[in-house]
Amino acid sequence: MTNIINENRINQIITFLNSLKIRSKRLSIILRAKKISVIQNFNQALTHSSDNKIINYEKLEFFGDAVLRLAASNFIEKKYPQMSVGERSELRAQIVSDEWLTKLGEKIGIEKLIIKGPKALGDENSKNTIIGEATEALIGAIYKSFDSIQEVNLWLDEMWEEDSEMFLKAPYKFKSKTVLQEWCQSKGINLPVYKIIEISKKNGDPKRFSCDIFIEGLKESSAFGKSHKQAETNAAKYLIEKYINVGKI
């Protein structure tokens, strides 16, 4: 089953894909020719199920998950051939995470292309989730359109190079709770205790939740976040930075 796409939408999708600056001659040729089968793949990747129960991004998102992991594995193999399997898995987990996908989606401005139904349009809580899912579906659509991983790597490798270097220089910034837990275990002390308080009821408020971290009964760090997870992560990151500065880590 296909979806009829008007000329306006076709041009919108072509402009968006050109803005990604994927260095692919095949993509350039297809976009100039306005090949409708390829445009339909991308239109599907940019349609939420609240708008269309049949033609939406869910299948491409599922497909994109596997494509993303394979493309990231290709990148790591080329960039860090001496890295152990464990180190590769850890790095890949960072550069294909839901958080990374959402940041990528925000960077490329994908939200303005996503067609949503009335329910999803007014749901601020699902906004970031939809951005991340549509971005993953976009990656699936790129692979499906060319039956090749090459275009995905041509697009993402440069971003992964920058993000990988940031992670490898300061991994604690990306997995702060894990690093803090491992530090406590290495010292033979109890695991950190996180205490969350809801400060505000407003969705999206960066100070909606407050988190205090206690180590051996003493409050060692406090931070805010717009979700439980973000508040805990921020508090753990600040505590690790504090311990690094005083030579504890």
What this model shows, in words?
With 249 residues, this protein is mainly α. The chain has two domains: 7-169, Ribonuclease III domain (Ribonuclease iii, N-terminal Endonuclease Domain, Chain A); 176-245, Double Stranded RNA Binding Domain (2-Layer Sandwich). It is built from eleven helices and three strands; from the N terminus they run H-H-H-H-H-H-H-H-H-H-E-E-E-H. Strands 1-2-3 form a three-stranded antiparallel β-sheet, with helices on one face. It is globular and about 65 Å long. The relative contact order is 0.10. The model has no long low-confidence stretch (mean pLDDT 90).
CATH topology name of the largest domain? Ribonuclease iii, N-terminal Endonuclease Domain, Chain A
N/C terminus separation: 58 Å
Mean pLDDT over the full residue set: 90
Main β-sheet, in a few words?
3 strands, antiparallel
* Oligomerization status of the protein chains: single chain
List how many beta strands DSSP finds: 3
Low-confidence runs of at least 5 consecutive residues: none
Radius of gyration: 21 Å
Helix content: 55-70%
Physical arrangement of strands within the biggest beta sheet: 1-2-3
Helix-strand sequence: HHHHHHHHHHEEEH
